[in-house]
Design a protein that fits this description.
heterodimer, A: 507 residues, alpha+beta, four-stranded antiparallel β-sheet, 16 helices, 31% helix, globular, B: 312 residues, mainly alpha, 2 domains, 15 helices
């Protein structure tokens, strides 16, 4: 047998699939008992099939080095992560609430700044925010929505609390891997889909298309929606092409577009210029328009900001949305939820210490060996200090960095991050993971992906899940099951039950 | 259809066709070598001439030995027309236009790409060569079949067709050019006239035209027949006339096509009006006509660029 769950040791953290060693969580019971019926040979065959599927489907992420693009196969673990539907519904509500508050905040910041006047968020936080775009002041995008697509990272601590670690509001990526993981896992374990009630994820491209087309400045017509990519050298290019294909929209580069004297955006086609209504831009703010932002950008489109401000084109996400993506602003999200929505936050923040505050900074500097220190505006896991694992020199370096630019740093306690069984060279072992659901905001309604992208740190003990730094991913199952029908049994009995199910079931 | 995408689809068609044609060319030359007496050997040099890569080849290799030529044509990344480079280029293009083609195209092209990466070197020695090249051809054909079965006949498809057909017309004329040059040079090189028919037969074979030739022409293989068939036949998919008619048939779906139509018409006239017997009798008659056609193909390309591909 390939999987011997009694050998699986997970007592040191919260495990997503096991309540105790040997005792599966109810939502994972069916999966785990099925896996236990798989022989080592069968597993090896399926692993081969999965690797081949990933290679042939061309699921890759791109690393650019020495002037050549290198495609790395997407590292994928065959054991899915399972979430009970009931738990997920609460998370979903929490995410909707959070993104709703964030959109209110961005609109407020580029408008009257009431939240600052009411002293809920200090003014200096904004003054020094590198993602605040003065060009956006006074703009009111359709529905008051700025962050149409948000990817929030969720992590679970030892006690099982699910925290929001950060919100990605600029150009969040990863959703294509969520979709592709599901199609790979269907090829690998088709039997499980016959017996388990695994909620589908494939609705996302259609939902995204609806979100985008609602932004068209010319209602009534079939809008011309395009996805603007920086090109094949971008590490997320695979995703850009994938989403464009799934939505049936044009994948464009900056050179394909231009803004004419009428402030409308056009794309260059073989029939001549064609008006563009909505742009799903996967290029960072600073590069989208050399006229408004960085003049040296060759990726963007000259005049795009002008077209957007005049309401001639929809942009998702809106330029300037990143102001709320700052890790210092993050600390104020619970306050925003109360301020704008008059609600209690459903999903908690990780407790955060802001180095700009003298008292909190003192605490951070005194506890560098226990905390994780993050710069306000880096993504991809770069520029971080994981205190307990850092050398003395690294900690001293960060002490200097914090003291010279306190606004740019915040710190959080080191969370243990939950684990799930993962296939490694040393057999099946617990590995740390996070979860990135994607939230689509359209004004009248909000959509949350069913589950999201589970990223897993494949290196033993590692807490860094980013694919650029040795992370992999898992398919994420939100499973619907009737808890009343599930036998509430002791450990031994439940295993016997599972075995019986697997022999009489799909196989 | 974005101009950039149209341009890419056109080149995708060309690169894929080029990879397939090159694989066929190598395979057939190997068979030709076996049929000729050893002292008569034509060698492998003409293949380099056919693909028009003399200067690149001479930069990197001394003599046109079998191994060097085959390596250069299959697996040398420094040869922009090698099978490996063509497949690499086609894949780089498909990356940027994946959204316009059926998803399976990408999967099948990856199959081809990884095969050439992993097995290309193995195709250099004779023992494995035929097997490897046949597999390359098969995998190419599979991509065409995905496209013809699953892709809408939208304007993007038309650009693919234009690319494949222009590339084929180009290859057909190059083969005729080089092979007929050799035949006309009897006085300087070895006397090849006793083997003329074998060589014409290999011309047909490298374009998989032998069987169809027999069927259509109902006569033994000779220079007149082969030239007539490969230039003027309206039914064989690798003849110059057929390829150009294919390109012409896409034009009604495209805007601003007048100049392109005129350029195509000029080549069709050259092929149609060619006096085959007189060309064969004249010194360098065939090569001269092929040069004319090549110039014409260049004009078609220029006209396409001007009408559709320019992005500034």
């Amino acid at each position: 047998m390939a999987f011997e769950w009694s050998q699986y040791r997970c007592q040191e953290t919260y495990d997503e699939l096991f309540a105790q060693p040997g005792q599966p969580r109810p939502a994972a019971r069916q999966l785990l008992s099925y896996l236990q019926s798989i022989s080592a040979k069968d597993l090896a065959d399926r692993r081969l099939a999965a690797d081949l599927a990933i290679k042939v489907m061309g699921i890759t992420f791109t690393v650019y080095s020495e002037g050549k693009t290198l495609d790395r196969a997407w590292p994928f673990d065959m054991i899915p992560r399972v979430i009970a539907r009931k738990d997920w519904e609460r998370t979903e509500r929490g995410l909707k609430q959070r993104v709703n508050a964030l959109n209110h905040f961005i609109q407020d910041i580029y408008g009257d700044q009431k939240i600052v006047k009411d002293k809920v968020v200090p003014a200096e936080v904004l003054v020094d925010s590198v993602n605040f775009r003065p060009q956006c002041v006074g703009v009111e995008p359709k529905f008051g929505v700025w962050a149409h697509i948000c990817g929030s990272d969720l992590v679970r601590d030892r006690d099982g609390t699910l925290y929001v670690l950060e919100d990605n509001l600029r150009v969040p990526s990863g959703v294509s891997y969520m979709l592709e993981n599901r199609s790979v896992i269907k090829r690998v374990w088709p039997e499980l889909f016959e017996t388990s009630n695994i909620l589908p994820v494939d609705d996302y491209p259609a939902q995204l298309y609806d979100t985008l087309s609602a932004l068209s400045p010319r209602p009534g017509d079939q809008p011309n929606v395009v996805l603007l990519t920086p090109g094949i050298y971008n590490s997320a290019y695979f995703e850009h092409a994938y989403l464009a294909q799934q939505m049936g929209i044009e994948l464009v580069e900056g050179t394909d577009l231009f803004v004419d004297d009428d402030d409308c955006v056009y794309m260059r086609t073989i029939y001549g210029p064609k008006r563009v209504d909505v742009i799903y831009r996967r290029i960072d703010d600073l590069f989208i328009d050399p006229e408004a932002f960085r003049p040296d950008s060759i990726l963007g489109v000259k005049g795009l900001m002008r077209a957007w401000i005049r309401g001639k084109v929809g942009l998702a996400n809106a330029p300037g949305a990143g102001v709320a993506d700052d890790k210092v602003i993050y600390a104020f999200v619970p306050a925003m939820i109360k301020y704008y929505l008059d609600e209690e936050p459903i999903l908690p923040n990780v407790p955060s210490f802001l180095c700009m505050d003298q008292k909190q900074r003192k605490h951070v500097l005194a506890n560098l060996d226990k905390l994780v220190v993050k710069p306000a505006n880096e993504s991809g896991g770069y520029g971080m200090l994981i205190g307990p694992r850092a050398t003395k020199e690294e900690r001293e370096k960060f002490r200097g960095l914090i003291e010279s630019n306190p606004r740019n740093y915040m710190a959080q306690p080191t969370l243990s991050l939950s684990t799930a069984p993962t296939i490694t060279d040393e057999g099946v072992e617990p590995r740390h993971l996070d979860l990135r659901p994607f939230i689509l905001s359209r004004g009248e309604s909000t959509y949350v992906t069913t589950g999201g992208l589970t990223r897993v740190a494949l290196v033993k003990g590692s807490l860094v899940v980013n694919s650029s730094q040795g992370g992999g991913s898992k398919d994420t199952w939100v499973v619907d099951f009737d808890e009343d029908l599930e036998p509430k049994q002791s450990q031994g009995q439940s295993q016997g039950q599972s075995q019986a199910q697997s022999t009489g079931g799909a196989r | 259809m974005l101009s950039r995408v149209a341009d890419n689809l056109y080149w995708f068609g060309r690169y894929l066709q080029r990879a397939e044609n090159t694989a066929r060319l190598i395979n057939v030359n190997a068979i030709l070598m076996l049929d000729l007496p050893r002292r008569m050997t034509l060698g492998w040099g003409p293949l380099i001439e056919i693909v028009g890569a003399d200067s690149v080849f001479r930069e990197h290799y001394e003599d046109a030995t079998e191994e060097d030529v085959v390596r250069f044509l299959i697996a040398d990344p420094r040869n922009p027309g090698s099978i490996q480079s063509s497949v690499y280029n086609a894949r780089e293009i498909l990356r940027t236009v994946r959204d316009t083609m059926p998803r399976e195209t990408w999967e099948r092209l990856n199959d081809l790409y990884f095969y050439v990466q992993e097995r290309g070197e193995a195709g250099i020695p004779r023992a494995q060569r035929q097997g490897v090249l046949s597999e390359v051809i098969n995998r190419t054909l599979l991509i065409y079949s995905v496209l013809t079965s699953n892709m809408s006949r939208d304007v993007g498809f038309q650009f693919l067709r234009i690319g494949t057909n222009l590339e084929q017309a180009d290859m057909t004329t190059r083969i005729l050019d080089v092979r007929s040059t050799r035949l006309g040079r009897e006085q300087s090189g070895p006397d090849l006239s006793p083997f003329e028919n074998i060589i014409w037969m290999s011309v047909l074979r490298s374009l998989t035209a032998y069987q169809m030739y027999r069927k259509h022409m109902k006569r033994r293989v000779n220079g007149t027949g082969v030239l007539r068939f490969l230039l003027q036949n309206r039914e064989f998919p690798r003849s110059v006339m057929f390829c150009l008619s294919q390109v012409a048939s896409t034009l009604p779906t495209l805007p601003e096509n007048r100049k392109i139509e005129r350029a195509i018409e000029r080549i069709r006239a050259l092929a149609r009006d060619a006096n085959i017997e007189a060309l064969l009798a004249a010194e360098a008659g065939v090569p001269h006509l092929m040069d004319e056609i090549q110039i014409g193909l260049g004009e078609v390309h220029e006209a396409l660029s001007a009408a559709y591909f320019k992005t500034d």
